[in-house]
Amino acid sequence: MIEPVTLAYIAGIIDGEGTVFISKGRPGKDRATPAYVACVRVGNTDKRLIEFLHSTFGVGGVYERPMTNAKWKICWLWAVTGPASGRVARAIRPYVRLKGAQLDLLLEYLDGFQSFELNGRNGVSDEELNRRESLRQKIRELNRKGPSEERE
C-alpha cells in the first residue's frame, strides 16, 4: 500500500507536471472503429522523478521524449494507459487540487467501458463511441491552453 503522504506528493506532481487525457486512434485495417485509450502521463527532465513514479505504482512505462531543440534537456515521460491509469487516478484523486475534473472523467470513461477486448477491433456501438468521444472532448476542453475561466 502506498502511504497517503506519498500519494499527496504524487498528486502534486501530476497537478503540476502531468496530464490526464483520452487519446483517439484512427480506424484502419485492424480496427472497425477508433480506439480510445485512457492515459495519465508525467514529463520531467529529472529521470529520478519519473523512475520514482514508475516504481511506486509498478505500472506504465518510462520513455525518453525526443527533443526538437538541441539546447533543451532530455525530457523523460511516465505514461500509464488503459485500466492501470484508473488505478493511478483512484489512488491520487483525494489529493489533487487542479486535475480533479479530468481524473473524474477518466474514471467515468474506464468504469463505463464496454470491453477492453473490443476497443475498436471488432467495432463498438455508436452509443459507446459517442460516450467515449464526449468524455474525450470534455477532458480536452479542461486541458485547453490559453486564457480561460477558473477551472477545478
Task: Give me the count of strands.
Answer: 4
Q: Describe the biggest sheet?
A: 4 strands, antiparallel
Instruction: Give the number of domains.
Output: 1
CATH class category label: Alpha Beta
Structure description:
This protein has 152 residues and is of the alpha+beta class. It has a single domain, classed as Homing endonucleases (Endonuclease I-creI, Roll). Helices cover 43% and strands 18% of the residues. The chain is built from five helices and four strands, in the order αββαββααα. A four-stranded antiparallel sheet has the order 1-2-4-3. Helix 3 (83-92) crosses helix 4. The protein is globular. The two termini are 28 Å apart. The mean pLDDT is 90.
Short note summarizing the structure:
This protein is an alpha+beta fold and 152 residues long. It has helices at residues 4-17, 47-57, 83-92, 100-111, 126-143; strands spanning 18-24, 36-44, 61-65, 75-81. Helix content is 43%, strand content 18%.
Q: What key attributes describe this structure?
A:
152 residues, 4-stranded antiparallel sheet, alpha+beta, 5 helices, single chain, Endonuclease I-creI, globular
Please describe the topology of this protein.
Elements: H1 4-17, E1 18-24, E2 36-44, H2 47-57, E3 61-65, E4 75-81, H3 83-92, H4 100-111, H5 126-143
Helix pairs in contact: 3-4, 4-5
